[in-house]
Amino acid sequence: MNHHYESCLVSRLSRFVCLTEQEREFVAEMEKDERAQGKGGTIIRVGDQTEGINILKTGWAVVKADSSDGRSQILRIYLPGEVIGLAEIGSSHANHRVVMQTDGVICPFPRSGLAPLFSDFPRLGALLTAIGSLDQIALRHHASSLASMDATRKLKFWLLQLRSRLEVSNVGLGNRFQVPFSQVEIGQAVGLTSIYINKLLRSFAAAGEIEIERPYMRLRDRAKWERECEFVNPFVDMDTSWFPPAQKVVRSESARQAMQD
Q: Exposed site from 108, 167, 215, 246, fewest CB < 10 Å?
């Protein structure tokens, strides 16, 4: 079996449409340049010139904002198969730091290489655009939870959303999923102290609502939590009706060579 059939990005995209062989081949081109990254390694620094996107082939990454007093805030989590930098494609310089949360592999892909998404693979371009829009909706829901919910529901909402996103990426199914974050880092994501995070997790476990087997957590009564938090999963409601049809691409030898250079 070709390696790109096992790609997390292909798996993620295939939840929404059945990819053609040529679309799979283009994704394989996007993932061709693999670079191993260690936990804590910086992928993008503030002010870096943005030259394209990075596909997170394996591992987790986070977007961090650092304040002048030394505190950090986790603004976004990237999961295996997600595309780093697609939402920032219109900006010439990076506005936030992106750091590996675990060991993993990234695949840098130049901005110029994205042109065929719009000329040769418009359905794939539409799909990436639509997934990006669902990601933005999820980020808004998260921001709303931080502004309007009490501490208990903030943490519950964050765990529910992480679970739903892992399910889309096909790297976490059911109610047991990986949470490779310290209590300090969970606090940075939901705006609470690590002491408060510890207290909440202990109370959830004592009430039989979660099981914690680090780095895994299991939600024992997800439906109850979803009702409490009025949780909406944006990833179950993608509208693909407007997508252009998949096109059969006839590539010249020169175009084929250009993609491989």
A: 215
Q: How many domains does the chain have?
A: 1
CATH code at 191?
Answer: 2.60.120.10
Quote the percentage of the chain above a pLDDT of 90: 75
DSSP line for the chain: --GGGG-HHHHHHHTTS---HHHHHHHHHHT-S-EEE-TT-EEE-TT-B--EEEEEEES-EEEEEE-TTS-EEEEEEE-TT-EETSTTTT-SB--SEEEESSSEEEEEEEGGGGHHHHHT-HHHHHHHHHHHHHHHHHHHHHHHHHHHS-HHHHHHHHHHHHHHHHHHTTS--TTEEE----HHHHHHHHT--HHHHHHHHHHHHHTTSEEEETTEEEES-HHHHHHHHT---GGG----TTPPPP------HHHHHHHH-
pLDDT digits (tens, 9 = 90+) for 13-29: 998 999 999 999 999 99
pTM of the model: 0.90
